[in-house]
Design a protein that fits this description.
about 350 residues, alpha+beta, Rossmann fold, OB fold (Dihydrolipoamide Acetyltransferase, E2P), 2 domains, five-stranded antiparallel β-sheet, disordered C terminus
């Protein structure tokens, strides 16, 4: 039997003849924080709904601790879901909202009281028991929705873009709260978002999706530093994605310039996609750079300057702690370790991975 708490095996799903999930395979371990990340329509919310039992796959099976739960209704699964719309009962106070599921299970009054108290403390909502949902802020309502899910002691908590309606400061605050809750309670989290920063901040592993296909699975560091294709490189953070030719191991030609890299195994004179992150490019004097051009734009972003430098073949995006004046003639250089080489797509299916590039 697999050690995974949850497995999705070859899941397919179509709506109105359009395939939204195409043979999805996922294994999730106990106490992991897994994020399904991708653009709108990529299939991430449908995947979550299949896990929760709100949708049923056309093909494939869902397993919980090795048991096939594909055909079980949501109430028969030890899983709770928090949606972006919190669906709190407006005529109930906070305490009654949180206690609702426990009362359905006919738990004792003292058990319910203790559980509600614990859940409120966990989400930093002590003292709000008698407040009605409409008197709470969006962030407070979200905390109540999470508390309502936690008191039922699910082994898996599903969250479908629950922070999407919050402003930046509240989102960052709730990200910290969710990580604290995961650590303290030991629940497995499956989180859906299109926000790359959110995914990179909270996740043990990220599953990047596009067009119903899993593009890449891995830690935040591996997804960011070692994207497996141009879609992932472009979706996760800013990137300069350009055509290159792998001349031989550890040497790539970019816009006619032979540049050392660390990649091997691509063959000789092989067309490739080259990814260079903006923060890895260094502005130098024209004679010291691989490529020469003119600074065309400079925007101060607080933590760094966002700089555009146009060469004969490409307009590069650079992120630097040092400003560069518009109109400056400059060169660009990059360390071999900071160049990522990827195979170009060879089939129509692989080309689909680049559609949103």
């Amino acid at each position: 039997m697999s050690e995974a708490i949850l497995e999705l095996r070859s899941i397919c799903k179509s709506f109105d003849g359009k395939k939204v999930l195409d043979h999805i395979d996922i294994e999730i371990d106990k106490n992991e924080f897994i994020t399904l990340l991708g653009p709108s329509g990529c299939g991430k919310s449908t995947t979550l709904r299949i896990i929760g039992g709100f949708e049923y796959p056309d093909e494939g099976r869902v397993f919980f601790k090795g048991r096939d739960i594909t055909d079980l209704s949501p109430d028969k699964r030890n899983v709770n879901t928090v949606f972006q719309k919190y669906s709190l009962f407006p005529h109930y106070n906070v305490e009654d909202n949180i206690a609702f599921g426990l009362k359905l299970k006919k738990k004792s009054r003292q058990y319910i009281k203790d559980k509600v108290k614990y859940a409120l403390k966990l989400v930093n909502m002590d003292g709000y028991e008698k407040r009605k949902p409409m008197s709470l802020s969006g962030g407070q309502q979200q905390r109540v929705a999470i508390a309502r899910a936690i008191v039922n002691e699910p082994e898996i908590l599903l969250l479908d873009e629950p922070l999407g309606a919050l402003d930046l400061k509240l989102r960052q605050e709730m990200q910290r709260e969710l990580m604290k809750i995961k650590k303290e309670v030991g629940i497995t989290f499956v989180y859906v978002t299109h926000d790359q920063e959110e995914a990179l901040t909270m996740s043990d592993r990220i599953i990047v999706m596009n067009q119903g296909i899993i593009q890449q699975m891995g830690t935040s560091i591996s997804i960011y530093d070692e994207p497996q294709n141009a879609f992932v490189a472009d979706f996760i953070g800013d990137s300069n994605i350009i055509d290159g030719v792998m001349l031989k191991d550890r040497l790539v030609r970019i816009f006619g310039i032979d540049v050392p890299c660390v990649d091997v195994g691509f063959g000789t004179n092989e067309p490739v996609d080259v990814v260079i992150r903006p923060e890895d490019l260094v502005i130098v004097s024209p004679e010291a750079g691989y490529w020469k051009g003119t600074v065309t734009d400079l925007i101060y972003k607080g933590a760094y300057y966002d700089i555009k430098l146009k060469t004969e073949d490409y307009e590069w995006t650079i992120q630097s702690n040092t400003p560069a004046a518009v109109g400056l003639q400059a060169g660009l250089t990059v360390l071999p370790d900071n160049i990522q080489i990827m195979n170009k797509p060879r089939s129509s299916d692989e080309e689909a991975l680049k559609e949103d590039e």
